[in-house]
Design brief:
Layout (H helix, E strand, L loop, with lengths): L1 E6 L9 E7 L6 E2 L4 E6 L4 E5 L4 E6 L6 E3 L3 E7 L52 H8 L16 E2 L22 E2 L1 H9 L15 E2 L1 H8 L28 H16 L2 E9 L1 H12 L10 H12 L8 E4 L4 E4 L5 E3 L1 E3 L2 E3 L2 E2 L7 H16 L13 E5 L18 E5 L3 E7 L2 E15 L5 H16 L8
Helix pairs in contact: 6-7, 6-8
Amino acid sequence: MSVNEYKLPDVGEGLTEAEIVSWKVKVGDTIKVNDIVVEIETAKSLVELPSPYAGTITALHVPEGETVAVGTPIISVSSGDSADVAAPSAPAAPATPDAGEEEPMKTLVGYGPRTTDAKRRPRRGGATPHSDAGAAAQLQLQGAFMPGGAETADVVESDEPAVPATPAAHSDEAGPVRTLAKPPVRKLAKDLGIDLRSVTPTGPNGTITRGDVEGFTSGAGTSAAAPAAGAVLRSGERETREPIKGVRKMMGQAMVNSAFTLPHVTEWITVDVTKTMRYVEKLKAHRDFRDVKVSPLLVVAKAVCLAMRRTPEVNAVWDEQAQEIVFKNYVNLGIAAATPRGLVVPNVKDADSMSMVDLAGSIGELTRTAREGKTQPAEMSGGTFTITNVGVFGVDAGTPIINPGESAILCFGAVRKQPWVHNGKIKARDVTTLALSFDHRFIDGQKGSQFIADVAAVLEDPASALLF
């Protein structure tokens, strides 16, 4: 019998760590090669991992809710027959197949020799909350302040020396007992400046709970030193905190980098889209569109692809290192999607070469997958232009931030019935607002204005698309 350890692989784009969201198996289960064993959350999406081994689960090394680095053993599988193993066991150095043997298990992304080392996460407690830099570092630590307590049922021994979990006067133990607490609870206590040795545990087997720590800060627990003066991160009954991680962490970093490295300029235009709304209704009734979702966003997407033919700069990118402007001869059209885990921007590959039917199907599939949290890293890479549809939230428009790696983004506002001068008379018309943010280093005002005017022209009269 052999026992194989499955190590967390790099599922693409230089992954260095991931959170274990949910286990799909338990100890004692029998699995086959490529059975799904765990769901993880990377900085961009939820990913299901298949097993490279067949056999019986002997151990789950990482609890749900824990974030671990790539290369960390996450599961052990025992097998009585080495022929059932679809990948080599994972020793410190990757095994090399014997001569004449086929290289094992190439189907699993990231398995095998690593070409780069994973970056180590910041050491917990490595920065003090008494400084702005320390507070910023602690905000980025995974697992901080999980609402309602930790997401894992496991507890770990604290870093403090062995001491009684309760004050000595109340302890009946002959020897010392180490304090037990879940990682988020330990983090909370550290940020509040509380010594866990001074907190009375009420959890199972003497475990210190989140409530114990919060009760201690309000004076309900064992009396001890007050929280450290100047502590930045606090939690009480009137506040709930959520860790900054996964998609939201990636989104925040990307937006800050974009906003402070690109000279954004935003232009606005208000458009009568009455004819577009009628066109959308006609498409919905057309037999070719019966299996896809048709919305005004589809017409906007098509208008963007057409307008780029006259203004290719909006689909280009500034290469700072090479000091070149890179013109893209294809359009990977990003559709910003709000999800429970944060904003993601999957993109439709080669959207400019698609028919309206194919474009509608691709947009519908991407947005559905995004809302389910199943968007894969490859679907969010390589975008060249983005549309953000704030109209679905009843918002008229905004000043969008350009997606990193791109040079422009179009904001599509709500379509509303408004009084509008049409053919010399005031009538109720369908009106919307478009806002275009663009990189002013090489897209000047004339180019940006021409592009947004062309998009508006197609929306005002879809028949004008024949002119492009």
